[in-house]
Structures
1.
Amino acid sequence: MLPWAPAVEASVEHGFLVTVLWRSSASHHDGERPKIAAAPYIAPTPHAAIRAIRVSLRTHHVFGMTPREQRRAVEWSESGWVQALAALRSGEPCAFTVVLNSGGVAEWSARPLTYLCLTNCSEAL
């Protein structure tokens, strides 16, 4: 080990990656990549991932959902999430998508994730 390199401990962790993406109406046709609408979040449990989506869904009304899509979003955040939770618990991804007034699309999703976590061992001392 190099004398100036900090001691690092590695561990394999499991969680659920929660993302919120936005696509403009034009991006459907020109292959443009979706924009990240909120910072991705790694939830420790399926329930925490669904809770993060439900909170985000209720606070992202600024996207400009149509009244119909607002009703769908509220419906999903009140009871529709149960199926999404079951999907995550069985190792499957889940997503909820709404069409916006602009013709764009917003998508909330969560998927199981295995990742490598690196911890600086000298900070733990």
2.
Amino acid sequence: MIVQDHPWFCDMPDDLRYLKPKEFQKPFIEKTMIFILPDKLKDFRRNLWHVRKRKNEEGAVYIPLFRVQCILDRDPLPPGYLGPFNVYPFYSKVARNKRHYLDYYMLFVFDGQPNYAKFRSLTA
């Protein structure tokens, strides 16, 4: 997998959790979800992105789609949400466009190796 313009990326750690609204809104149910980061990852709230496979690509090139809403463990939970739930698996429905399933992932993406290395050391 290659994330366009982001040479380093990581999957979500196992201690990540999420909140879901009582009713999902379409088309992207993920836009209404809120992810709860462990306090040790407070500096990486802006690095968690939904990515999707680039259209008309034969290879595995992905592009950032939108930034994920995040709060920290110590933050109060917003009203109107259910949870927290364990992060795997967090998709309630598979994204679909007409007859094709869409290829989406959620990743921590990094522009620089120092932030990537710091993140890896905190999640190892």
3.
Amino acid sequence: MTAQQAAELLETLAERIGECAAVVRLDGPPHIARLAHDLWEQASSIAAEAVLYVLAPERMTGAPFEHAVFYDKAVTTFAEEASAYLNTGRLPRWRLRTRLARRGRPIRLSDGRTAPGE
């Protein structure tokens, strides 16, 4: 694989991580969304450094290794936190509302009022 191909592959990877992070930002809890954003930032930094290497290898300063370490840490932290969150057994609010509605229980709204179950 040439440096150009590797840079293109890293750019594609960063784009896909960004797409996944966008979904997490929309649907995930705030602390997991922040970790997903951090993961995307680190992947983007690695991709940018790879492109810089292809365009001007003489300007490289050793930053890719540092970015790779930060990326690895971001992946590990995100995976651990997301796993811990997903394995708590707690339901997201929208799923809890749906479950309560199916049982015919009143649903408490954020302003304190209750809506009848569907």
4.
Amino acid sequence: MLSIYVQLQNGYVERASLLCDALRRLGDNSADATLASAVIAFINGHFRDSVAHLDRLDRIDPLERFGNYRLTDRQRMRRYLRLRCLYELEEKARAQDALESYLRHGETNDEGL
């Protein structure tokens, strides 16, 4: 996962995509690998694919909990990514819901990622 992150940070999207594809073919269906797939799809402009990966990620690692809570930076990034994808897909109602969800838990916690 670190290698994928470093490749993306340095603009090597194709290399990161290859690594991510290799992980999936090896059977890695973890939350981290799914998030990496969502980010790569977003960077490549494949917004529907990115939302599909985020939907799968929500089933693997749900964000919602009961009561008052603060999101981690990673959780906020997931919500922001969904918001941007829905905006790009011109799904106004879903994008509005995503924005409200993103803003509802505006502060991050001190635990980090």
